[in-house]
């Protein structure tokens, strides 16, 4: 297992270097002065020009420039925003909790509803129910996320007026940020309107989280159904049935834990599309996360924001994917057997 972890770490480092190399190359293609593209300073003074030149080794050869660029970015120095003239790192850290909170709620919804429906689709003998579930998942997978988000906003926000369609919380509630996760911050707040603020934040969360959860929900249903159909025909399941165990015990104790292993693997593969969907959802619902911040930076040609946002989002996706792969290997007996056999 140690060799496997070392290989995963090497893969992460190598991929990160390639990503940094691509960002370093594209920085030179921006239609702006290189000092501005790297630092975010629009009209640098002679002293600032000299400082940036020294920090990024602009008066040296390309390998040394890349080394200096890599050193600055890995140290957390992402420059300052061309638009706001604030630290890109600080703006990013202020936006990141909102994105993580929305993504976690959407993933939780996909698992909580997708796994039971996938089990139902695999166990039911009613063909109409099977066809209805599969048709529902195919429809959900095919619907463009921007159309779904706008439609939900129009129905439940504009026509019915049931739910808010933008932002995280009503601006009337003054909640002191603690972690940046709005549901947690409102819950632990000492404000006399704590519960009202929490319910308002929860209402703001419903439409964007449902919109974002549709894609992973449909995948979870299909993968769970396929895995359950395969596992229920295995010898150990038939042995459990022969011992007189009830269907509920067989499913919960024997079949479901094994069926969740391929679900976990496919969730890791979906991180890229899930992140791109998250960006679209944040823009539609004006969610103050990294996605909407990054899109705003693209519109405003804020090159340091673009670099910082792409770098951090890509690193998070790669790191999360590798961690999910490690967990999958650790929990899957077949993967562990192949791993030890290769060693």
TrEMBL record:
InterPro entries membership: MetI-like, MetI-like_sf
Organism from which the protein derives: Shewanella gelidii
Keywords, comma-separated and alphabetical: Cell membrane, Membrane, Transmembrane, Transmembrane helix, Transport
Pfam families named among the record's database cross-references: BPD_transp_1
Family: Belongs to the binding-protein-dependent transport system permease family. OppBC subfamily.
GO (cellular component) term, any one: plasma membrane
Domain ABC transmembrane type-1: 96-328
Record-linked CDD domains: TM_PBP2
Protein name from the UniProt record: Antimicrobial peptide ABC transporter permease SapB
Localization in the cell: Cell membrane
Gene for this chain: sapB
Chief location bin: membrane
Annotated TM spans: 9-30, 102-121, 133-156, 205-224, 274-299, 305-327
């Amino acid at each position: 297992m140690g060799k496997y972890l070392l290989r995963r770490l090497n893969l992460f480092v190598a991929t990160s270097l390639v990503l940094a190399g691509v960002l370093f190359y594209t920085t030179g293609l921006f239609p702006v002065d290189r000092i501005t593209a790297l630092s975010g300073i629009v009209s640098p003074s002679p002293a600032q020009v000299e400082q940036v030149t020294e920090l990024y080794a602009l008066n040296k050869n390309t390998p040394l420039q890349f080394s200096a660029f890599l050193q600055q970015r890995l140290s957390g120095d992402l420059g300052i925003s061309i638009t706001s003239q604030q630290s890109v790192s600080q703006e990013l850290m202020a936006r990141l909790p909102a994105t993580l909170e929305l993504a976690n709620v959407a993933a939780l919804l996909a698992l909580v509803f997708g796994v039971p429906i996938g089990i139902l689709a695999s166990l039911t003998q009613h063909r109409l129910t099977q066809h209805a579930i599969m048709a529902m998942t195919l429809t959900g997978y095919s619907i463009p996320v921007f159309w779904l988000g706008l439609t939900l906003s129009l129905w439940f926000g504009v026509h019915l007026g049931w739910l808010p369609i933008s932002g995280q919380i009503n601006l009337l509630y003054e909640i002191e940020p603690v972690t940046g996760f709005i549901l947690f911050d409102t819950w632990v707040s000492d404000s006399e309107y704590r519960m009202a603020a929490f319910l308002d934040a929860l209402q703001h969360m419903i439409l964007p989280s449902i919109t974002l959860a549709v894609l992973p929900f449909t995948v979870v249903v299909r993968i769970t159904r396929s895995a359950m159909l395969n596992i229920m025909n295995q010898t150990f399941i038939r042995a459990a049935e022969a011992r007189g165990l009830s269907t509920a015990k067989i499913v919960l104790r024997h079949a479901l834990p094994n069926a969740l292993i391929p679900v976990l693997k496919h969730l890791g593969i979906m991180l890229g599309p899930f992140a791109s969907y998250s960006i679209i959802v944040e823009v539609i619902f004006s969610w103050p996360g990294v996605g909407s911040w990054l899109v705003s930076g693209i519109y405003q040609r804020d090159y340091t924001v673009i670099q910082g946002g792409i770098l951090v989002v890509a690193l998070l996706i790669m790191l999360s994917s590798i961690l999910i792969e490690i967990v999958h290997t650790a929990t899957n007996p077949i993967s562990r057997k192949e791993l030890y056999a290769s060693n």
